[in-house]
Specification:
single chain; Rossmann fold; Beta-Lactamase; five-stranded parallel beta sheet; 13 helices; elongated
């Protein structure tokens, strides 16, 4: 036999495939084990009765059961195969040398995955087993795809319907929620019943084209929900096969919610633009205020510097004036000794003493800016709170 189908089995499934042999003749069972393992299959167990075959199948769940129709004991291979298939859906290939017509008919009713004749022929065994395993692998893949499809339908936000001749045979949760109907309600409906009168001709044309296999792009129509409100939807569809029968897959996207969402998004974008514009204005005002504050701080610093310079100048001028007066008094005291003169000298001394006390009021102390103390130390040896003119009379 060509190895093509066995290659297909290895491609579709994990390899090696597991098989349980059900044969009450030990020599024939070992012969089957040797052949199967030489072809790359893994024989997990050999059992001799129908009851044991069911127990082993439930315990290890093999990929295939190779079962003799005639088994010793109260349960033959046909009954064991029927129970295994109904409980676990494991494919069974029958092996038979001869059987009465009634037994063969029972075997056919159990829907086996194949039948091989004794004495065994290698090509027949390999082909039958490979075909059964390939069919089983494809059935599993189809079941997985269908399950993923059902999950996608359940999670989809679009309304999905399956039609046969215009009647609804399946809907997803989104359609039930959007339309407000129960599943039993919709399964009694024709899709045209949900359509608005204005959109009915377009819907009839679209469904006819889809059922005829003509590709059709999306089209916007109006449908009615349970409360009678009109929903704007975009309808698209394609022909398909469901459960072995021709069907039409319809997908409807509700534009009503999308239009509301787009309006909300536009409103949010406008509010965001206004907020950003206001933020830009506030930033400009802060920059302008910071610039004015910097200019004011510089002006205050310049004014204080000018005050310090003027204060130092006034102090020097008062010191010079005091020194001149003191010198003049010294010279006058040497030549004028009359009581009148001494009285005059005392009055001038008292005036100078009063001037000394008045210097802080005449020349106020200027508080330096933070960090400017180091710059002002060269102006005077006295600290700001001790600025005074020392007059020695």
């Amino acid at each position: 036999m060509s190895p093509g189908i066995e290659h297909t089995v290895r491609y579709l499934t994990s390899s090696p495939q597991t098989i349980v042999v059900v044969e009450d003749e030990r020599i024939a069972a070992e012969d089957l084990r040797r052949r199967l393992e030489s072809w790359g299959y893994r024989v997990q167990a050999i059992v001799a009765s129908g009851e044991e075959a069911i127990r082993v199948a439930e315990a290890i769940r093999p990929d295939l059961m190779l079962m003799d129709i005639r088994l010793k004991g109260p349960m033959d291979g046909v009954e064991a195969a029927r129970r295994i298939k109904s409980r676990m859906n494991i494919p069974v290939v029958f092996a038979a040398s001869f059987s009465d017509p009634a037994t063969l008919k029972r075997a056919q009713l159990s829907e086996p995955s194949g039948l091989i004749s004794k004495p065994f022929d290698d090509k027949e065994i390999r082909f039958t087993i490979a075909t059964a395993l390939a069919k089983r692998a494809m059935e599993r893949q189809i079941a997985e795809v269908e399950e993923r499809y059902r999950r996608l339908l359940a999670m989809s936000s679009d309304m999905v319907m399956l039609l046969r001749k215009g009647r609804i045979v399946h809907v997803n949760n989104a359609a039930l929620k959007t339309l407000g109907y129960t599943l039993n309600d919709l399964l009694r409906f024709d899709l045209h019943r949900l359509c608005t009168p204005e959109s009915a001709p377009a819907l009839k044309l679209i469904l006819g084209e889809i059922e005829s296999g003509i590709p059709h792009s999306s089209v916007e129509i109006g449908i009615l929900n349970r409360s009678g409100s009109v929903l704007s939807v975009v309808l698209s569809g394609e022909s398909c096969v469901a459960g072995g029968e021709p069907a039409t897959l319809i997908i409807m996207t509700d534009l009503t919610g999308r239009i509301s969402a787009e309006a909300e998004a536009a409103r949010f974008a406008e509010e965001l633009f206004d907020a950003r514009s206001e933020a830009d204005e506030r930033a400009f005002e802060l920059v302008h205020a910071h610039r004015e504050l910097s200019e004011l701080r510089d002006a205050v610093a310049e004014e204080r510097t000018a005050q310090r310079i003027m204060t130092a100048k006034w102090r020097e001028e008062i010191r010079a004036c005091a020194a001149t007066v003191q010198s003049s008094l010294s010279r006058c005291s040497d030549h004028l000794c009359s009581p009148e003169h001494r009285q005059l000298m005392d009055e001038i001394g008292r005036a100078m003493h009063l001037l000394q006390q008045a210097i802080p009021a005449i020349v106020p102390t200027v508080t330096p800016e933070p960090g400017s103390a180091a710059r002002d130390t060269h102006d005077t040896k006295d600290s700001p709170d001790r600025i005074s003119v020392r007059l020695q009379l």
